[in-house]
Structure prediction request, 998 residues.
Amino acid sequence: MKRRRRRSALSYLGWSVAWLAAALVLFGLFDLLVSVVWHGVRSFHFGMLFTPTQGVAGGLENALLGTFELVLIAVVFAAPLGILGGVYTSEFAGRRMAAAIRFLAEVLSGVPSIVIGYFGYLLLVLQFHWGFSALAGGIALTLIMLPYILRTTDTSLQQVPHLQREAAWALGMTRSQAIAKAIWRPAAGGIATGLLLAIAIGLGETAPLLYTAGWNANNPSLQLTHAQVGYLTYVAYTYLDQPYQAARNLAYAAAFVLLVVILIIQLLVRGLVWRTTNRLQGRH
Amino acid sequence: MRNVSRTAKAADHVFRVVAGFCASSPAVFLLLIAGIVLYQSLPVMHFMGWQFVTHTRWDLGNLYGAMVKKNGVTAPVGASYGGLVFIVGTLLSSAIALVIAVPISILTAVILAYRVRGAIAWILSILVELLAGIPSVVIGLWGILVLVPWVSASLAPFLKSVLGFIPFFGGQVGSGYGLLASGIVLAMMIVPIITATARDLLLQVPLLAREGGLGVGMTTWEVVRYISLPYVRDGLIGAIALGWGRAMGETMAVLMVSGNAMNILPSNLYSPISTMAAFIADQLDSAQTDASGMAVHALSELALVLLVITLATNLLARWLVRPRLGRKKAGVAS
Amino acid sequence: MKLHHTKWFAGAAVFSAWIAVSGCGTTATNNSSNITTKSVENTAANQSAAKTTATVSLSETGSSLLYPLFNTEWIPAYHKVQPSVQITAASTGSGTGISDATAGTVDIGASDAYMADAQMAQTPGMLNIPVAISAQQVMYNLPGVKGHIHLNGAVLAQIYEGKVTYWDDKNIRALNPGVSLPHQLIKPVYRSDGSGDTFLFTQYLSHASANWSQQYGYGTSISWPGLATAIGAKGNDGVVAALSKTKYSVGYVGISWLDKAVQAGLAYAALQNRAGQYVLPTTSNIQAAAAAVKQVPSDERVSLIDEPGADSYPIINFEYLIVKKTQPSASTAHALQGFLKWAIDPAKGNAATFLTPVHFLPLPANIFTKSQAQIAQITG
Prediction:
């Protein structure tokens, strides 16, 4: 009797500690969100979106446009490479080859982002003499985003029932026709999700850009090399350490804008996932 | 049924080749990264030898003085590239992150897997994944605004007064920037990784096994403790190794709260440190100032060491996760 | 979704692969558009038009010591004189200023330190043009201590080496009889980025301490002694922020930040000069030191630390603008020359209205001629 009571007390204690741990994680998250949003809302005003940085103050227009340009360049490279690579892994590669590609993509995603940035510096900025530039930064981001896009494309295609492929082949389509006309449809939601998540990751990166994109207080030009570009995470990182309230406000605002954009993308992704799973379930 | 035309066949072939080329890009990029970083660190390898990983003095030398030649490499007078401080900082801060994050993540995963259901489970899981999506510079900002003042005013003095008799916990409390703050920030960043994987693993424990435990009179907690957790042990260790690799490679958040120590090994939990990743990010200026180019090569070797260590832990993690988890991980968003 | 066009797909992939592989090729094509000649709006659409209009844009990065003068005084003033020249400035530290200027990513690199011989050899054709005289003060956060405490190079070296660790150390008390100093750990603040201020400060320490000179030397970034109490900060702005946040800290700050730092509650020390006197960085003391400068080579790369004279303030320096002798185009060269001439002119850029707010001094007449001669060497 006594032993049983002790055991149930231990069980109670175990669960309490587990709940406490979960509460701690949630508390950390909320504390983070609240303090960033609190500082952000007080420093942010809409004029910032249309003014470039001036000295220690001004706005975020140059950083916003620069972030947009860098991520756009990265998407232009990473989306075709990742999606086609994922298609190949799922649809063409043999079992062994597919396992090898998945493995290598995961290894690439495990390379620290600063190493990718420094690699970009050594090869693109120094060796190719591009200087700090949009193209160098964009390619560094490509390396970050590529494995995510490849893996999500691969997994979404893997979830398409084999029957659909056979049906398409039976109609006399080649493999690529089957992919282009039929198989991509049910996987599109998953692929879009992967792309969006990769964009969210790209938006929030700093380390790969420090050594490749540089910084620019002017709005970005369309020049791909030899012109430095500003980006949001740089403002959040650099302007925080300055003795002016205006500079710190800019840093808070940059972090706030970043957080809002990334949260919107995350919610969009949830919506997409929710819709596609609903649709799939509806069909069964 | 219609015949496959010749053009369609050719298009199919072209598509396959192009897609195959794209699929090979991760391998190409990996080789390129490893190759370039290795090649650029050769001069410093000649110059320093193994002292690169055993010495604590990082000195670009007198950039306004003459050059010296050592082992066939020209460098500024007095130059010495010893990366031990940063290697130790990386290992220690990530170890502290694991000490904090592992129990919290596993317990949270237990709750997510077994205690909440339906909409609440969904929302909680999303919140945890949200934490994974927050940019590290924003976490660093939180670290400076909230964490560092709290560490220096409350946590560090508290730990010192309670555990001060243990050598590593005593001594100077410092400014709040340092090992402890770095460890906590890193823990924030790896908790979602370990939690998500652990939750997926725990959900895969067969219901039968768990019910069997209840059937023989175990309490619900004992089922978790003696059946579920041992069942997923290998996978959990893999998830932890994965989080460890991530923690060692993390840059910005650590850079912002580490205190940027140089030429000194941490003497206690509150000492300023620097990690390999943070130091590389911090040394952009000096890399540009050294006309001999040796600073660039030295940072390159630091990147190489970091690459090797993180890849090794990653490979270990994959190897551990592989057998049981297989390819069953379905969720796209995880 | 754009996925159903196989051709588009393949085309995009091949294109991206081509760019990724033949990276060097794009350099050549992109390079032809002029990096420095930008339109006022700085948008690429107007970039081709920029060459036909007379508007020239000059960019500056570098010294955070020169930045307040450059950004808040010179740029607005020069814009009135020459509206067709658009100048932008950024405070990045002298190290970045030098490397940006030598790499050609900016037109003007600002630096408190002249370029090292090795750098000059590596990138020939660079000019180091002094445009003003500046100084540096040692600042501290000592609540309750009034006035200016006395410090010298030897004691400062011991503080940064970790040999003097408390404010009431006997070596500090010996310089400050009658001042009650707290028994608190000293927290030395240093610049973690490449900085002309580090160059000046470590030169001062090297002059006073043989041990410092041997062990650490001087430079824009040096290998600081490992101290658990030391704090690294970026830029003069960062140092001021760190000092005001951290009680019982000490650090070195460029004179253009003096007013900001004093507002932030910091005090500055009287430093011992070569004659053994303790002097403050007042205008007359800086002037005395500047007047003592005798030998200046024609390329004007020279240290002004520890000039002789009873009133001479020990840490003064030239503020350099570092530019390429050969500019990419005649219009840039012309705009640059115009601006530099204006900047060093005692009646214009070097007038007291601009320099006094940042505590800089105009170039002495003999230096002015030398700078003028260097500016004349710029060609397009």
